[in-house]
Amino acid sequence: ERGADGNVKVLYSQAVSIMNAYLSSGTKDVEVGSIVLEPLAGFDEVGTMFPRLVTELPSLENGGIAEDLTSVTWKITPGLLWSDGTAFTADDVVFTAAYCMDPAGGCAQLAKYEGVQSVEAIDPLTVKVTFTGPKPNPLVAFVGAESPILQKAQFANCTGAAAPTCTEANFNPIGTGPFMVTDFKVNDSVEFVANPNYRDPAKPNFATLSVKGGGDAASAARAVMETGEFDYAWNTQINPELQAAMAAGGKGQFVTGFGTLVERIEMNMTDPSPDLPEGERSTAMHPHPILSDVNVRKALSMAIDRSLLVEVGYGASGRPTCNLVPAPAIYASPNTDCIAQDMDGAKALLDAAGWVVGADGVREKDGKRFKLLYQTSVNPVRQDFQALIKGWWNELGVEVELKTIDSGIFFGGDPGSPDTFQKFYADVEMYANNFPGTDPEPYIVAYTCDKAPKPESQWQGENINRFCDPVFDELAAKLITTKGEAERAAIVIRMNEMLTKDTYTIVPLVDRGRLSAHSNTLGGVVLNVWDSEMHNVQDWFRIK
Amino acid sequence: MLDAKPSVKLVTKLVEVKDLKMYFPIHTGLFRRHTGDVKAVDGINFDIYQGETLGLVGESGCGKSTVGRALLRLYELTAGSVTIEGEDIATLEPEALRKKRPMMQMVFQDPQACLNPRMTVAQIVSEPLDEHTDWSADQKLAKVYELMDAVGLNRVFANRYPHAFSGGQRQRIGIARALALNPKFIVCDEPIAALDVSIQAQVVNLLEDLQEKLGLTYLFISHDLSMVRHIADRVAVMYLGRIAEISPREPLYADPLHPYAKALLSAVPDPDPSREATRQRIILKGDVPSPSNPPKGCNFCTRCPEVIPICREVKPELAEVRPGRFVACHLVPAQNNNAAGSTSGTTVQKHNQQGEPEQ
Amino acid sequence: MPDGAKPVLDVRGLQTVFRTRGGDVHAVNSVSFHLEPGELLGVVGESGSGKSVTMMSLIGLLPMPPAEVREGEVLLGDMDILKISPAQLRDVRGRRIGFVFQDPMTSLNPVYNIGNQVMEPLRRHMGMNKAQAYTRAVELMELVGIPDPERRLKDYPHQFSGGMRQRVMIAIALACDPEVLIADEPTTALDVTIQAQIIELVKELRTKLGMAIVWITHDLGVIAGIADRVIVMYAGQVVEQAPVKELFANPQHPYTRALLKTIPSVTGERETRLKVIEGQPPILGAAPTACPFAPRCGHAFDRCGAENPIRRALGAGRVGYGHDVACHWDASKGAAHA
Amino acid sequence: MTDTAPLAKPRSQWADVWVQFKTHKGALVGLFVFVSLVLFVSVGPLIWAKDPTFINPDGATMIRTRNKPPSLEWPLGTDQLGRDMLARMMKGGQVSIAVGLTAMVISITLGTFVGVIAGYFKRLDNVLMRVTDLFLALPLLPLLLVMAMLFRDPLSKAFGTEGGTFLLIVVAIGLTSWMQAARVVRGEVLALKEREFVLAARSIGTPSRRMILRHILPNVMSPIMVAATLGIANAIITESALSFLGLGFPPDFPTWGRLLFDGAEYIQQFPERVIWPGVAISLTVLSVNYIGDGLRDALDPRIRGR
Amino acid sequence: MLTFTLRRLMFAIPTLLFISLLIFLLVDLAPGSPMSQIPLTVPPDVRLKIMEAMGVNEPVFVRYFLWLKQFFVVEPLVLWDHWFGTSYSDGMQRIVSWQSRSPVMDIIVERMPQTLTVIGTSYVLGVMIALPIGIYSAYRQYSWFDQIGTFIAMIGFSVPTFFTGLVLILVFAVNLQWFPSIYDTSLRVTDWDSFLAQARQMAMPVMVLALFNAAQISRYMRSSMLENLGADYVRTARAKGLSERIVVLKHVVRNSMIPVVTVIALGIPSIFGGAIITEQVFRVNGLGALLIGAIQGSDLPTVQTLTFIFAVLIVLFNLIADILYGMLDPRIRYD
Ligand SMILES: Nc1ncnc2c1ncn2[C@@H]1O[C@H](COP(=O)(O)OP(=O)(O)OP(=O)(O)O)[C@@H](O)[C@H]1O
Ligand SMILES: Nc1ncnc2c1ncn2[C@@H]1O[C@H](COP(=O)(O)OP(=O)(O)OP(=O)(O)O)[C@@H](O)[C@H]1O
Ligand SMILES: [Mg+2]
Ligand SMILES: [Mg+2]
Ligand code: NI
């Protein structure tokens, strides 16, 4: 029964700064926003798409997707109401697209609308999305928590440059979700009450919901597992010992789900040497003096014991992987040959490559020392990984210098800073990345030659390693036009293996799961890594 | 005495002070505008002759120290000139002034405060040598020992710190420092005020001995009138930034002319109960006016027991009223009009330095 | 009692010691003196001779520790004020014994106005309410000769000159009509002209109020002018005691004599050379076993280095009354005392 | 007093200071503790010659040797990667104490310089004090980030990574913590300038430079000592904060601050891991504080003169 | 006094303008960009567009002058409108945070209550603990009380607050379950129960900060008391026969407070600056947390506005400290 279970308290270790996913793509903002704003369709916990505000998913079979893949037609569920009681219509969907695609708006989710030519309302309950060309994977816009529907009436005056001025609307959007905002404190807390006009009259079970933000993961976990102050804590990534100790406390439990997030080591294919003039460092002009050799990269990968890394750093919320695309299952390569550590093999490979152990135990070749600078962002687990991997590489005869950078700088992409991961002024670097939704296409095609960060592009670009292979570029071009899931999967697997197993340009380490915690009295929690963790708050209930 | 034993040689002026003014500006208001001055020294004239001791007395805050410091240009003068050995100190360039410093030195009031507590006696005494000579360390040490002998300090004390000395000994260190560069002129700013009676005598005797030996010239600032009587040849009485009277010692003590000098002298207690009981005192009423706002006319008019109306209107000038005696008072008419305003017009004869009669 | 009335204050064998890191400092050694009603007792001695410590020991104003009053009794009337409780002692301070300190510049609390500080003892001891205390404070200010008292009571100490501050201190000390006023070098920090004003004031008040006064100074000139009787202190001991005229006319102790000789005067013969007391004052340490003045004394002989002389009366009378001296040498005979 | 004491052989000022210092019990204990700590971190590694960053490359062994409680083999236990805590504490102490001392020296030097100049030269006073205000108002984090960005690479090039980082850290801490010292010193100098011995030196013709060196500086030692002791504590803790911004030493480089922070995560299971660095930092700060107390007393001529 | 105040205020304006420019350049130059909080999944071209929409790419001086105008013209107008119901500021661009797209001033106003209650209370409490401890330690110098006080103060200095905070949470929140470990900013005190809840959630952060503040201030108070206890006027007060309580509490304390009050006043801007670490540990989310979040997210308008307000407070309290000094000490008069 709606509202029967009182209040539920959720803790986000990063605080929410805005409820409108189009103005901030921060995960916490998107997820908490999804409690109020809903997309037309979402993903369930296994990554299958399902309709939310529409009667059915468009498909080739039901005609929702045009044969030539150039348009999609959505059929809105009749009788849907916004939380203010007005009717949800196709106009709202059309407006949402216009809102995000306005060039002056700085929409954070513009990628969702890539290739969209127009969105029109056929009738109040039918929306047609037309693309500029055939789109093999057309169900992107209005799907998933990143692309929710805004109410036209509320945001009509907030398009383009006016978008940031609508503070009231951005903080307290009118939505179709199970709750509505009653109080919003920037970067602090959000209070919700049940939406009286929610489409399922029996839901949500809770009358109110509060989201608190800030702090660190360990204390967030503690607030659920040990003190019991909160019902749910988001992303409680802590060390395995602490996980075990807290789980034994009996107040709550951890839930894990695996998505596409992979912790990896990226090899720099270009020379980052500080002796090079600025503008030539880490550019395609100078290949890397050591790492250009595939056997060297392979040896470095072989020296790593991924299982141990998982055990030390993640416990149940991680698993070793050799793939850049570990999921969904059909896109994942079966390759597991990197899992077993092979120190002797690695040494042999280096010996064969001409790197011989010198007097002080460090390998040399042509008078050049085997020395690597290994950088990553500040994070206790990453620092443990650095230390462990440095130990193994030392064993190989490689001298390693470690460097950590504040994540704000490392991931900030400021072209003025030498320490961004895109600039890659180091030999190897470690971080994690994933892709939204279930389609790896944009993720994998980013490794084409032209996407390498370089001074001319203000160091923007996703091909961090500066990997460049014409064969790969061709495959990428092919993938974009291929339809049919199986065919696409084959290409993705091939591309993935080119980057990992064939060339060791990218050395995947750990497939990182999502670890969240909820109290034993909170029922109905289903951890969903493909969409918002709040995707089913309406089903949560109090266990009495 | 002055008249009794005229000097045979013509004495030379060592220091000539002309219309010396030393104002400390007061800034007030939003823009820190210069709105007034503390007139610490307000236009004074006097000379000091080679080899004499000029006493400077007056009550606290009347500007005695300021005069002493201005004479050595430790302050930038507001107006006037100070000529020492023919050179005007007030306008010298910094480097020239530094060169001139060895010939004029100062002994300070508080023997504790004027010695750097973290330097040894040897360091303190040799500091002037460090600054003005390029002697070797040995030469300097030899000179330091010589100076310590001269002021009666045991050489063994050379490595001690000032705190380990008694007040009298500390004052000797200060004197040794002042003597290091063979000065001709020394300003003694209340050198005995902080000392015990029994020790005051030691220091005063030392100063006298040195004067005799080295032919020094002193400006001796003090408010202990009995000590001044002992050591000074001539005495200047100051009141509120101006000179009330300058006279040779004996006539002044016997017969002060300026009402303030009278009051001052009468206030000195006499260590003889019988005389003390019969003595007539002039007790001044009220407080000294603020030097930033001196009264119009004669600046003593607010407390003067003999005040007449003109005192409140017209500022009396310092004038020679008796031979060698200068007074700034309307009640003491000048005998010799052409000497008004300055001592420079007359030849003041020096009372015999060596020939002090041994009565 | 042979001499005069019963003393208001009678100090017997007072001994005060400072316990310091470098060992005990015997600052006051068996000091005895008495004070008769209406009398002005002068105390002279050079710096560090224990004048202030003696007076402050009487009413427990020394910081304890390090100070410690080891022996002696201090009779105020019939009460031994060294033995009474701290609370009783506080009733004595300010009420029966008034105190004026050496340095008028620092002895007043800079953050309270004069009125507040003058009224404090009145309200504490006399049980006056604010209005009464205020009226009395105005009277007191007039008594010590401060013009326009109503206005000046609202002023702060820094707005007063040194002489006026000393007058305020005197007003505070006189507030409760004490039997005894102890003035510790009240004029040392002041100018001669101001000093003359203060001395004049005390003389006047003494005749008006008739209290007994102890006046500490090292200026013999001041003593000569106002004291009835004088005690001379040296190194924590009383070395000579006599009526003022007698002392100046017929000093007995070599130290007193030397002291009298060192002072130049504004009148009389001018010395060509000042007399000095050679040597340095002694360092106070353990209780003296020899005459502390012996090292500087022209008459010292072997007994002086072996035995600390005790005070002996000259002529008739007893120690403390008339003329007495602590010296092995007999000045009148010009030989060692028997 | 000493005047009549038997004529002792002349002692240097520092000998006097030491004599006075010795009478301060707290300071002596502090000195003993501090010297022990310095010995522990400097001589200790020679005796206990384990590599503080050594991780057993064999995974199975490593797993077995992690998170060990104190034992004979690992007197202070091991950390989550099986590294020897004793060796880490020693190595960490070297860095922390070195950073603490050097950064303190820099900040004190700078603070003293600004304070003395502001106090001594009246014309510069206002300007310098406004600069001090400015530094107080500047947000430190961006300042540090900018400094790291601009100077980290050139310094690393010139002095090697560790040397460069060390320099960067100590300079950064020094540059951002001198203001307090400057204010205190300025106040002191203003008062000192009015003292007569400064006037005496002027009457001799001592120029400003020597006046400051000879007369002013030695006499502001006491407040400087106090600022110095507080400075060490501040520097050690700031250093640890810097490494969390990635501005500090490389991550495998233990320092007490970092050990404390890393250990905090494991406080419930292995509390000793925070206790070691926590106690070490507190002991250093406490001992330095007591030493400072003693030195201040010993340097104060009023006290020494007693 | 008035002219002194005016004069100082007048001089403060150029100083502050200069400080604001420096802060702006510094924050702008600092590495890091507002994009760092955005997941890597957002493609580079979208990032560039977002930055453009924020105005990040405008030349730095254009942005600085825009900020100046917004801070000194627009925001005061908004305030005016808010108070008097006028609408002069309509259509004017306020200072908007890059992170949350909301006016920075609104966020600051929103954060003020918890900052003032928690940090303010801890400061007041710290002062209230520190003063008696300082007074008694000095009055009984080298007693056991004094020694222990010194020891605790030193510990208070040397142990970082993240550590004390963590220990308190483990003891009081996890084991004893007395206090919540997380601060609820939406709690409104309306009755006794909510007051108790508020008191409980404030307990731990206030303890941590009060210990830190008290450690520092008690040291100042102690040394100031020691200086004054030996003063001549204390002897005078005793000679009047006043009781020890009055001598110490009336005469000594008032004088000793003179330097301490300025120390306390100069510490007040740090209340507004927030205690960054403590705020994070207990999720008080006050101004300190706002600033650190803004710096990490390179949210230049927020950082600039906040630090400038702190700079104003520092200058202002410097002045207040001087004025207080003059008021407490009649010897000092500023004209
Ligand atoms: N640096 C200064 N700034 C402002 N006023 C000053 C300064 N130095 C001295 N004065 C003022 O000038 C006047 C004369 O001071 P000075 O020190 O010369 O007096 P003095 O006669 O030496 O007194 P004392 O006998 O107390 O030493 C005083 O009113 C004093 O306040
Ligand atoms: N707190 C103390 N600790 C140790 N010795 C002290 C202390 N106070 C005073 N004395 C010593 O007691 C002796 C007597 O001091 P006191 O102040 O009584 O001298 P005084 O005769 O009043 O001198 P002055 O004329 O300078 O005031 C001195 O030798 C002094 O050093
Ligand atoms: Mg003077
Ligand atoms: Mg005394
Ligand atoms: Ni000594």
The CATH class of the domain at 13-258 in chain B turns out to be Alpha Beta
Number of helices of chain B: 10
Share in β-strands of chain C: 15-25%
Per CATH, which architecture of the domain at 13-258 in chain B?
A: 3-Layer(aba) Sandwich
Task: Give the name of the CATH superfamily of chain C.
Answer: P-loop containing nucleotide triphosphate hydrolases
Mean pLDDT of chain C: 81
CATH fold description of chain C:
Rossmann fold
Number of domains of chain C: 1
The beta-strand count of chain B equals: 12
Strand tally of chain C is 14
CATH superfamily of the domain at 13-258 in chain B: P-loop containing nucleotide triphosphate hydrolases
**Structural class label of chain C:** alpha/beta
In helices, the fraction of residues of chain B equals 25-40%
Q: How much strand content do the residues of chain B show?
A: 15-25%
Domain ABC transmembrane type-1 (chain E): 112-321
Subcellular location (chain E): Cell membrane
Family (chain E): Belongs to the binding-protein-dependent transport system permease family.
InterPro entries (chain E): BPD_transp_1_N, MetI-like, MetI-like_sf
Describe the protein in words.
The complex is a heteropentamer of chains A (about 550), B (about 350), C (about 350), D (about 300) and E (about 325). Chain B has about 350 residues and is an alpha/beta fold. In chain B, about 30% of the residues lie in helices and about 20% in strands. In chain B, β4 and β5 (about 85-90) form a beta hairpin. In chain B, α4 crosses α5 (about 165-180). The model of chain B is unreliable at about 1-10 and about 335-359 (pLDDT under 50). With about 350 residues, chain C is of the alpha/beta class. Chain C is about 30% helix and about 25% strand. In chain C, α7 links the parallel β7 (about 180-185) and β8. Chain D has one domain (about 35-45, about 75-305): MetI-like fold. By secondary structure, chain D is an all-alpha fold. Chain D is globular, with a radius of gyration of 23 Å. Chain E has 2 domains: about 25-100, no CATH class; about 105-330, MetI-like fold, CATH 1.10.3720.10. Chain E has helices spanning about 1-30, 45-55, 60-85, 105-140, 145-160, 160-175, 190-230, 230-240, 245-265, 270-275, 275-280, 285-295, 300-330. In chain E, α4 (about 105-140) packs across α7 (about 190-230), α6 runs antiparallel to α7 and α11 (about 275-280) packs across α12. Chain E is globular, with a radius of gyration of 24 Å. The model of chain E has no long low-confidence stretch (mean pLDDT about 80). The chains are: A alpha+beta (about 550), B alpha/beta (about 350), C alpha/beta (about 350), D mainly alpha (about 300), E mainly alpha (about 325). Chains in contact: A-D, A-E, B-C, B-D, B-E, C-D, C-E, D-E. The interface between A and E is large, with 72 and 58 residues. The structure holds adenosine-5'-triphosphate (2 copies), magnesium ion (2 copies) and nickel (II) ion. One adenosine-5'-triphosphate binds next to β1, β2 and α1 of chain C.
